[in-house]
Amino acid sequence: MxxxxxxxxxxxxxxxxxxxxxxxxxxxMAVAAALSGRPLLEVxxxxxxxxxxxxxxxxxxxxxxxxxxxxxxxxxxxxAQGWVDPGTVTFAIAVVVLALVPLSVANGTYAGVVYLASxxxxxxxxxxxxxxxxxxxxxxxxxxxxxxxxxxxxxxxxLHGGPPTWPLMVLAAxxxxxxxxxxxxxxxxxxxxxxxxxxxxxxxxxxxxxxxxWISVGGTVLVGVAVVVAGLTVGLxx
Length: 238
Fold this sequence. Notes:
Layout: H1 9-16, H2 19-35, H3 40-64, H4 66-71, H5 86-106, H6 109-127, H7 136-151, H8 166-184, H9 188-193, H10 199-207, H11 209-233
Helix pairs in contact: 2-3, 3-5, 3-6, 5-6, 6-7, 7-8, 8-11, 10-11
């Protein structure tokens, strides 16, 4: 059922961008860049790049899932509620991608390619992997590439920095899997009703949602702490 309370296009696009998660990722990557010793200008560039990448993923999610969101009565999904046309959101994705590509390359050619691959991996999740037991894979790939985005990053095209340390990449990939589980947990009932059989749902059906919640929170926190410890000890670059 669609809500009768409509928003303007700009507000609808903002809400469709999953602002809390998008800003969390943007700030987190900016802080990581700052802690790795990058100057303020480069930290701002990292933030702008990540913001653009994350918002395209969020918009794609709302467009792809609009019918399913409508069926389960998601009142927080602007596209499903009819506040903004799917074509408008798709056009907005294309516009932001036109900015995302040069922004990514401005971090360095290698870093830019790595970040674009990270975003494409999450697009693949929205388009295909979300409905299968392999749903964890795009998150693992996307998060696992983020240390490389930072380690190769610099200002301007070409090669900067060096390869990331493998422990940090592995831990970042595991953190991505944890984030996938945490993000899926609030929608388990709706996903089950609409046949979206991703890995978190399959696990929840076997062990129960409450137990999965504690395992997901505990595991993600532990991996997050391990990422920080690895960053401070092993370091970002090999």
